[in-house]
């Protein structure tokens, strides 16, 4: 029973702003049972005055389809104000999930915050537009 409770613990979200970009750091799991609370927290942190958004997933332990859905919905929200986002993913397993789901074709997936700043400033178009995902 204890393990089930801990698996439903919502991830921690925190935010900072650097170089005009909002950086949202996520720590924990983005899975069924945790994403609704994460969605509310992300909405509360959202700063529509930012020039772009970096989602730091370096401390994300696991992500499932509901976690991917959370990211897609956030991306659509920021696209509606003509902004872009980059994702920091350092975990090889999670990066493989991003490749399998084709997320790396929709969003820049980088290893560091500095790479995130660079790709957002360069406004690189990726092969798969968000509207077609």
Automatic annotation (TrEMBL):
Pfam families: STAS (PF01740). Residues 11-120 form the STAS domain. Transmembrane segments: none annotated. Gene3D superfamilies: STAS domain. It comes from the Bacteria. One of its GO terms (molecular function) is anti-sigma factor antagonist activity. Belongs to the anti-sigma-factor antagonist family. This is Anti-sigma factor antagonist. It comes from Desulfuribacillus alkaliarsenatis.
């Amino acid at each position: 029973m204890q393990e089930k409770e801990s698996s439903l613990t919502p991830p921690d979200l925190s935010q900072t702003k650097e170089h005009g970009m909002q950086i949202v750091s996520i720590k924990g799991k983005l899975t069924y049972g945790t994403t609704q609370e994460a969605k509310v927290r992300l909405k509360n942190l959202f700063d529509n005055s930012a020039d772009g958004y970096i989602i730091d997933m370096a401390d994300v332990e696991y992500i499932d389809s509901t976690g991917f859905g959370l990211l897609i919905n956030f991306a659509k929200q920021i696209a509606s104000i003509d902004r872009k986002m980059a994702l920091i993913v350092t975990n090889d397993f999670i990066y493989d999930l991003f490749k399998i789901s084709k997320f790396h074709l929709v969003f820049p997936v980088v290893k560091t915050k500095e790479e995130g700043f660079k790709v957002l400033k360069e406004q690189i178009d990726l092969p798969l537009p968000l509207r077609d995902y």
